[in-house]
Design goal:
Layout (H helix, E strand, L loop, with lengths): L5 E9 L6 H4 L19 H4 L22 E4 L11 H9 L3 E4 L4 H9 L3 E4 L2 H11 L6 E5 L4 E3 L5 E3 L4 H9 L3 H6 L2 H14 L4
Parallel strand pairs: 1-2, 2-3, 3-4
Antiparallel strand pairs: 1-5, 5-6, 6-7
């Protein structure tokens, strides 16, 4: 998993609440177990018409937001089914950080497991970031995980909270497999001991 330390880039604003995982990545894109290529289907029903043509008014089709790495959105983001394709699609498009007043629990957990930083903030702080995002290419936002702060283009700073264990996993690039491999020596020692103590197993 890619490490997350400091992220600087364009933030796109999606002014919607209760965005469920089917809206993030519609069911027709769930035929693959690969984590790549899903960015094309991200928010497909909002981005394309019935013939598959891009809808130019959608934020991710407008420069500079087509290169956004931070998504600012509304409450209860990621609700609905537990499909892990949702964070895969966001990551494949280029998003590394999602900022919202609240998230659905399973989606929130899946973000951390895939190298995406979900940040919850009060609506008043979100509004400040939306104002920053409205300036387009002239407003890059920096998310500093080590310092747990978001820095705006005018020097404003917003602090955020994060669980220390999840913070370490993101900063060190540790998913569930990586965490298990940290115990590789202990696992190998147990297996060797078990072979001697239980040769019949």
């Amino acid at each position: 998993m890619q490490k997350f330390t400091t992220l600087t880039g364009i933030a796109a604003h999606l002014p919607m609440i209760n965005v469920d995982t089917d809206m993030i990545i519609p069911k027709q894109y769930l035929k693959t177990i690969k984590r790549t290529g899903l960015g094309r289907g991200l928010f497909a029903e909002l981005r394309y018409d019935e013939k598959g043509n891009p809808l130019p008014d959608f934020v991710l089709h407008r420069a500079p937001y087509d290169k956004a790495v931070i998504l600012i959105t509304g409450e209860n983001f990621g609700c609905g089914s537990s499909r892990e394709h949702a964070p895969w699609a966001l990551l494949d498009f280029g998003f590394r950080c999602i900022i919202a007043p609240s998230f659905a629990d399973i989606f929130y957990n899946n973000c951390f497991k895939n190298g995406i930083l979900p940040i919850t903030l009060p609506q008043a702080e979100i509004d400040k970031l939306v104002d920053d995002a409205s300036r387009g290419a002239n407003a890059t936002i920096t998310v500093d995980l080590a310092a747990q702060e978001i820095r705006g283009p005018d020097g404003g700073v917003i602090k955020f909270d994060i669980d220390p264990f999840r913070k370490r996993c993101l900063m060190e690039g540790l998913d569930d497999i990586g965490l298990t491999l940290e115990k590789a020596d202990a696992i190998a020692a147990f297996e060797q001991r078990s072979r001697h103590e239980r040769p019949w197993a």
